[in-house]
Design a protein that fits this description.
Blueprint: H1 11-22, H2 33-37, H3 49-57, H4 60-64, H5 68-71, H6 77-81, H7 88-103, H8 107-113, H9 119-136, H10 149-152, H11 155-188, H12 196-209, H13 222-250, H14 261-285, H15 296-321, H16 324-343, H17 352-365
The structure holds iron/sulfur cluster (SF4) (2 copies).
One iron/sulfur cluster is lined by residues 38, 40-41, 47-48, 72-78, 88-89, 92.
Amino acid sequence: MAEETVLSPDIEFIRELRQAGGETLKKCYQCATCSVVCPMSPEDKPFPRKEMIMGQLGLKDEIMADPDIWYCHNCNDCSKYCPRGARPGDVLGAMRQRFIKEYAIPKFMGSIVTNTKMTLFALAIPLVIFLVVLGLTGHLHIPEGKIVYSHFFPILYVEAIFITLVGLTGLSYLISLNKYWKTLKRVNGTDYKMGFGDAFVETILEFLSHKKFTKCEANADRKNGHLLVFYGFVGLFIVTCWLTFYDYIMGIESPIALSDPMKWLANLSALSLLVGIMIIIANRLKDKGINTKSSSFDWTFVTIILLLTITGILTELIRVAGVRTLAYPMYLIHLMFVFYTIVYFPYSKLAHMGYRALAITHYKMTGKDIK
Ligand code: SF4
Ligand code: SF4
């Protein structure tokens, strides 16, 4: 006798997916064109057709355990060729947004950051923290003399806030990643053809070159913007670490001289971020003849990165111009976007880096990876 399978549809989950940008889900009539044209789809258990069925049926648990939603690189070749305009690429994007919320620890942070209606509230949290700290320590005023940001907001306070909160959210992210890794093993089995170390190193090398982006057809020009943003962040991370070294080991206080190589790297990284994010925005606005659209979650993230970059550049320019009354408030606003980007990392679109890295690593270990 055939084995009986009991499905547990989650109606609320279907509603959430549709609200998050997957409103075309119901249009799919299962022709499988998308799975055929997808450059990332493996022969064994191809996607995204099966995800469209799972979405239509509201199979939340199955989707939350599905590595393919992270193996998808959002190129939208599938949406271009879908004869029903069901936009499977967008539906998978909505599934990833829902996934980040589902795996978030604590849950309420996922609910705040993935909900675009709460973005202003999410931005207000760091601003209130900063104002309270400045008020309690007697720094809530514009300092006299040369503009030095640490005279307004001492480095020690900035570090205490950021290191504590990044430490806590970073730890929660590691727990979420570990949970996902266990799910990957449970769902896909452990018949490995490759060890974790080798597969992970290969994955990181692919990240550095964005090799998989070259497989996309409809959205191929997204690669350059993505690469510039990626390396912009890498550069700024190096500068931040180096400035800590300058401050604590070498006793060199910020702002460092414009002639310092670290200043060049900081400015180049900011430029890389700015150009990269402009390319990404232009690419999203361009009519590529694809029946697809970016979700408000995507737009919020892109806007935050744009504002982070612009306020960072303005913070430096206004300081160099010597306008004290503008420089310090701008610094505070910039710190607010820095906070959003790094403290909220596990709950924002940036969280995709870890989940996707694990999904690709597992694909490689099981021999499913598309070279
Ligand atoms: S999403 Fe479109 S291409 Fe894919 S199975 Fe459904 S109707 Fe066909
Ligand atoms: S968006 Fe691209 S990678 Fe993702 S399922 Fe569609 S074709 Fe495949």
